[in-house]
Amino acid sequence: MIFFTADTHFADPRVLRLDKRPFATLAEHDAALTDAWNAAVGPEDEVWHLGDFARGSPAQKADRLGQLHGRKHLVAGNNDDEATLALDGWSSVSSYRELTVEGRALVLCHYAFRTWNGSGKGALDLHGHSHGRLTPIPGQYDVGVDVFRFRPVTLADILVSRRRRKSAEATSSETRL
Predict the structure, then answer these.
(1) pLDDT tens digit sequence for 129-175
(2) DSSP helix/strand/coil, 130
(3) Does residue 51 contact residue 75 with C-beta atoms inside 8 Å?
(4) Cα(24)–Cα(119) distance, rounded to whole angstroms?
């Protein structure tokens, strides 16, 4: 299986305040995200982390990365320093990546694009950085943990999320009529 996630911000106290994540302490936050990751991802699965992995010392980051299941790839974010990029636990590190998964062309970057390679031909833009605050445009998906219950998700999960939102919006507007 192939999974996507972003904006875990392990060991970053700002997420409790700025993003209002529902955890009493940073230790609780980090443990919950690690447990959710490992409940979703198996040891042989592949995970594309689209940036903003963790703060802390290189040893702390390496320890956290080692606790997470799967073969992990990093598409670097604005909070990923040189020590994060150099961690041995990454199978690859890049700032931008294009993949084909389940027959779908994907553009992976920490940042959302207004337009992207193949956008007019069905390619999807998967990103992080906005912590669920950016209004999506067609074909664009924030895969960050703030959007997907603090866990990595598959392409099927991502595509279903938009259909669920459209269905909920339609139901909401029908009840207002």
Answers:
(1) 999 999 989 999 999 999 999 999 999 999 998 655 544 443 333 33
(2) coil
(3) yes
(4) 40
d(CA 6, CA 21) in angstroms, rounded, equals 14
pLDDT tens-digit series, residues 18-57: 889 999 999 999 999 999 999 999 999 999 999 999 999 9
Burial of 125 (0-12, 13-18, 19+ CB in 10 A): buried
CA atoms of 135 and 51, how far apart (whole Å): 19
Classify the C-alpha dihedral 9-11-12-17 as positive or negative. Answer: positive
Q: Can you say how many angstroms the Cα of residue 115 is from the centroid of all Cα atoms in its chain? A: 19
Q: If DSSP codes are grouped into helix, strand and coil, which group holds residue 15?
A: helix
CA dihedral 120, 128, 97, 46 (to 10 degrees): -120
Instruction: Decide: 109 and 95 in contact? Cβ < 8 Å.
Output: yes
Query: Residue 105 corresponds to which tokens in the numbers above?
Result: 């062309």
